[in-house]
Amino acid sequence: MLLQSIAFYLFSAVLIASAVMVIAGRNPVHSVLFLILAFFNAAGLFVLLGAEFLAMILVIVYVGAVAVLFLFVVMMLDVDFAQLRQGTVQYVPLGLLVAGILLAELVFAGTAWRFAAAVPHVLASAAPAHLTNTEALGRIIYTDYVYYFQIAGLILLVAMIGAIVLTLRTRAGVRKQSVRQQVRRYASDTLAVVDVKPGQGA
Are the beta carbons of 14 and 37 closer than 8 angstroms? Predict the structure, then answer.
């Protein structure tokens, strides 16, 4: 129990510090690296809560794909961030309003959780004792919410097909690679043997 408490406070402290450095860092590359560190510590907190599936998804999807994509985009684009920061003071009231709403929602959720914890049957485990967290989540997704899961898959499939169609459309004046033409070419099409006489070379 003591080890779990130490791990919780350690993960939480590093997570809060990383989150602060994401918005306080002057270098955008450093901000993305701190964001990756924040994701790792959030995954550690999920493991402590017994939600290992969410921790795995957080590491695989967000750290392995989204954050790395952000990092490559920030490193490749030559963006003048000093110019982007100009005029940000006018958005401070709106940011404080959104932050206040989020804080109120967190307080409300924490209060509701504290009241629910006082009633033993409210926070009873949703998964039976003989099932793991991942197996219980899979049973719920593929039984109670199977239609919603299939609809989400169809939406992603349509989005993927649309992206492919938009990318592969034919446009005039755009040169494309012809793999078939490259594979079926002969040596005579690309090479020429020239008999250079002495004294006539370059």
Answer: yes
Assigned token pair, 151: 């609809």
Residue-range domain boundaries for the chain: 1-80, 126-166
pLDDT at 129: 63
- What lies within 8 Å, CB to CB, of 134 at 6+ separation is 52, 53
- Give the span between the Cα atoms of 25 and 23, in whole angstroms: 6
123 Cβ partners below 8 Å, 6+ apart? 116, 117
3 CB-contact burial (10 Å; exposed 0-12 / middle 13-18 / buried 19+): exposed
In the chain (202 residues long), the average pLDDT of successive 10-residue segments reads 83 91 82 87 87 85 81 72 70 86 82 65 56 81 91 94 81 76 79 80 65
| Helix ranges restricted to H, 142-194 | 146-167, 179-183, 187-190
For 197, residues 6+ apart whose C-beta sits below 8 A from its C-beta are none
Q: Spell out the residues 6+ positions from residue 144 whose beta carbon is closer than 8 angstroms to its own.
A: none
User: What CATH number matches the domain at 1-80, 3.30.2040.10, 1.10.10.60, 1.20.120.450, 1.20.120.1200?
Assistant: 1.20.120.1200
Q: What is the pTM of this model?
A: 0.57
